[in-house]
Amino acid sequence: MNLEFIKTELFMLTIAGAFQRNKVYKDNIDEKRRIEFRRNIRSLLEKMKTEYKISVSEVRHLENLDKLKNDIEKQNSDLLRDSTISFGTVQKLLNLYLKYLWSIGLISEPPHCPIDKIIFKKINDHKTSWTNMNKADYVSAIEKISNIKGSLSIARWELKEFLRR
Predict the structure, then answer these.
(1) Alpha-helix residue ranges (DSSP H) falling in the chain
(2) In a 3-state reduction of DSSP, which class is residue 25?
(3) pLDDT-derived band at 41, boundaries 50, 70, 90
(4) pLDDT tens-digit profile of 87-125?
(5) Contact assessment for residue 62 and residue 140, using Cβ atoms and an 8 Å cutoff
(6) What whole-number distance in Å separates Cα of residue 16 and Cα of residue 8?
(7) Do 90 and 65 touch, CB atoms closer than 8 A?
(8) Nearest to 146 by CA among 135, 155, 136
(9) What crossing angle do the helices spanning 87-103 and 135-148 adopt, rounded to 10°?
(10) What's the Cα-to-Cα distance from 29 to each of 48, 70, 77, 150, rounded to whole Å?
(11) What string of DSSP letters covers 107-146?
C-alpha cells in the first residue's frame, strides 16, 4: 500500500471538507498562494498528528486547536478573510484529519469529532453555523454530544451517526 498517496488523498478530503461553503480567503488570492497555504496547513497538521499516536485528553485537544488557529493566522493573515480563520474551520481541519487517520489505524482514537451541519442537526442546534462558530460554540456542541452519546466515545458516536445520515 502506498501510504503517502492515501495520506495525501485524506488531506485533500480534509481541505475540501473544511473549506467548501466557507469563505476562508480574501478576494483575489491567486492559486499559487492558495497552494502554499494548503501546504502550510498540511505541515502544521502533520506535526500535530504525532501527538495523537497515543491518547490525547480533551484539555490538550482544545489547546491544540487554539495553537493551530494561532499558527495558521500568524503565518497566513495576508490571505485570510479579515486576517483570521474561524475556530469552526480550524476544528473541522484538525478533527476531520484525525478522524481519517484514526480510521486507517495511523493514530489512536481522537477525543472529539468534526462538528458540522450534520452534527448540529443531530444535537438539535439549528442556529449555529460550523463555519462561524467560536470556541464556546464548539465546547457547547461537544458537551451536547457527551450528553447523548451513551457509552460510546465522541469519535465512535460520530462515526455511527455519520453512517446513518
Answers:
(1) 3-19, 31-49, 58-76, 87-103, 117-122, 135-148, 154-164
(2) strand
(3) very high
(4) 999 999 999 999 999 999 999 999 999 999 999 999 999
(5) no
(6) 12
(7) yes
(8) 155
(9) 40
(10) 27, 21, 12, 45
(11) SPPPSS----HHHHHHTT--S--TTT--HHHHHHHHHHHH
Query: Considering the chain, what is the average pLDDT of its residues?
Result: 95
80 has which bridge partners?
25
Cell, residue 13? 478530503
Which residues neighbour 150 within 8 Å (Cβ) at sequence distance 6 or greater?
Answer: 157
Question: Using CA atoms in the order 112, 42, 133, 79, what is the torsion angle rounded to 10 degrees?
Answer: 170
- Name the 3-class secondary structure at 72: helix
User: Quick one: cell of 162?
Assistant: 455519520
Identity at 95, one-letter amino acid code? N
SS3 13: helix
**Cell triple for 45:** 497538521
Task: Please name which of 51, 77, 80, 81 lies closest in space to residue 65, comparing C-alpha atoms.
Answer: 51
Report d(CA 43, CA 26) in Å as an integer. 22
pTM: 0.95
User: Do the Cβ atoms of 133 and 115 come closer than 8 Å?
Assistant: yes
